[in-house]
């Protein structure tokens, strides 16, 4: 009887947590765990990670059905937003399809690198003051948070290792970007390296933007994922260690 009640409650859901079902049904957690385990073995459920499940639709086979990777990624930690290389590709800034889904959050999570249903996920924790510039998009009937175009660019300039390097984010400058928003976001990040990389790329691609010049003698790498060699840009105090020719 308990199993029938549970199935009736789950029939209208695609994804759920054990806490949601416990609150919805009033079933104690221990017998609920046993029930969910049995349903999973019968091929009616698939566990995403501890305490989180998806419903397997009728006619689908266990191990072959999944949801969009952005939906799965948004369930792994709260608050969260799809970001970095994943967002670059979503916004059409790069043709490269990353083999990892990057998820940005302000929360702690024990595991930052996960593999779920054959897909790799990277959880990137940032400071709360850097968690902004997020929009909601609809994917397969679910609302998913993702960094907007300009915030994606700024995030990638902040942490180029999570976007495949500066070459990938530089491709975004071939598209139409809101320069006022770029400037606002860059200043809000409170990171000199972001401003200097943005300033150099805007100059290179002929984008008019008003950014403060660096008040330092120290130089940073345009792309910290690449070797420290190349010519220097004295205006932005940047070592140009990647070749951007051809991206114009």
Automatic annotation (TrEMBL):
InterPro entries registered for this protein in UniProt: AbiEi_N, WH-like_DNA-bd_sf, WH_DNA-bd_sf
Record SUPFAM superfamilies: Winged helix' DNA-binding domain (SSF46785)
Domain of life: Archaea
Location of the AbiEi antitoxin N-terminal domain: 7-55
A Pfam family matched in the record: AbiEi_4
Descriptive protein name: AbiEi antitoxin N-terminal domain-containing protein
């Amino acid at each position: 009887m308990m199993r029938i009640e549970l199935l009736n409650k789950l029939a209208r859901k695609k994804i759920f947590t054990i806490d949601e079902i416990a609150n919805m049904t009033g079933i104690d957690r221990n017998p609920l765990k046993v029930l969910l385990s049995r349903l999973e073995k019968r091929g009616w459920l698939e566990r995403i990670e501890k305490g989180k499940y998806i419903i397997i639709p009728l006619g689908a086979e266990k191990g072959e059905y999944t949801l969009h990777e952005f939906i799965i990624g948004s369930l792994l930690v709260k608050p969260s937003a799809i970001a970095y290389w994943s967002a670059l590709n979503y916004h059409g800034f790069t043709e490269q399809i990353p083999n990892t889904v990057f998820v940005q959050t302000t929360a702690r999570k024990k595991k930052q690198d996960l593999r779920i249903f054959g897909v790799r996920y990277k959880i990137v924790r940032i400071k709360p003051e850097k968690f902004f510039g997020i929009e909601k998009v609809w994917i397969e009937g679910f609302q998913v948070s993702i960094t907007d175009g300009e915030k994606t660019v700024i995030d990638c300039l902040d942490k180029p290792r999570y976007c495949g390097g500066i070459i990938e984010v530089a491709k975004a400058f071939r598209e139409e970007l809101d320069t006022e928003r770029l400037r606002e976001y860059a200043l809000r990040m409170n990171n000199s390296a972001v401003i200097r990389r943005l300033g150099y790329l805007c100059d290179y691609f002929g984008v008019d933007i008003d950014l403060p010049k660096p008040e330092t003698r120290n130089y940073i790498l345009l792309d910290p994922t690449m070797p420290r060699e190349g010519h220097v840009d004295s205006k932005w105090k940047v070592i140009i260690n990647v070749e951007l020719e051809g991206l114009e």
